[in-house]
Amino acid sequence: AQRVTQPEKLLSVFKGAPVELKCNYSYSGSPELFWYVQYSRQRLQLLLRHISRESIKGFTADLNKGETSFHLKKPFAQEEDSAMYYCALGPRYNNAGNMLTFGGGTRLMVKP
Amino acid sequence: SQTIHQWPATLVQPVGSPLSLECTVEGTSNPNLYWYRQAAGRGLQLLFYSVGIGQISSEVPQNLSASRPQDRQFILSSKKLLLSDSGFYLCAWRGPRDDPYNEQFFGPGTRLTVL
After folding, report:
1. Nearest to A44 among B49, B90, B97 (CB)
2. How many angstroms separate the CA of residue A54 from the nearest CA in chain B?
3. Model confidence at A22, in pLDDT bands (50, 70, 90)?
4. Rounded to whole angstroms, how far apart are CA atoms B59 and B47?
5. What is the mean pLDDT of residues B37-65?
6. DSSP chain B
7. Which of A25, A47, A98 best probes binding to B when mutated, by most B CB atoms within 10 angstroms?
8. pLDDT on residue B39
9. The domain that contains A104 carries what CATH number?
């Protein structure tokens, strides 16, 4: 069964501090991992995906298959990073509905 | 470009009343469509998904139902609302199965309060 765990419901840091939002997954096949973000009064939107190996708004995430993790990191947090972050898992194959499994979400608060 | 709409934006309904939330997508054909509920402290829960007209799959047993009468229209319904149906309902779409990008695009959501 697929499962995504985000152990922290709330993460509060000061501006300029490093940020790490944790995500662990459980899946026996070949996973595709995503981070979605929801800023205040905005739609839920894709932040980044592991297959792109990109950095968006200073955030990066590396898929660690050995630890089954996909933690989201940023070296220096900004106040505008305050938002709700969701980690999502989507099997790359044999998924007729192309469904994503979402974690419970972590609210990031960046204090001035 | 593709867009996704949901209405109403907010809804306050008494317990036992019916529900109909609508989602429409523009600018794409044969999308996969999804209904999620975002409850406070409980993350994003997939309720239904559809890979085509009239094809609905339910992920969790509940008081709700879904229908897809047209290719780009997805409706979430209930005959009798419960207090526990309160929440933020999100509709999402992505390309059909052969679309190489697995990204889902979300609508603005409907805030439902059942009193």
Report:
1. B90
2. 15
3. very high
4. 5
5. 86
6. --EEEEE-SEEEE-TT--EEEEEEEES-SS-EEEEEEEETTTEEEEEEEEEETTEEEESS-SS-EEEEEETTEEEEEESS--GGG-EEEEEEEE--TT-S----EE---EEEEE-
7. A98
8. 79
9. 2.60.40.10
Q: Do A99 and B51 touch (CB under 8 A)?
A: no
Fold for B3-114, please state it: Immunoglobulin-like (2.60.40)
Q: How far apart are CA B2 and CA B31, in angstroms?
A: 11
pLDDT in tens, A30-39: 788 999 999 9
The pLDDT of B21-39, averaged and rounded, is: 93
A41 to chain B: which residues are within 8 Å by CB? none
Which two tokens mark B40? 């406070």
Joined together, the tokens standing for residue A102 give 């979402």
Tokens (6 digits) for A42? 């905005």
d(CA A76, CA A18): 5
- Residue entry with tokens 């940020």: A19
Number of domains in chain A: 1
A50-91, pLDDT tens digit by residue? Answer: 877 788 899 999 899 899 999 999 999 999 999 999 999 986
Query: Tokens 């089954």 label which residue?
Result: A68
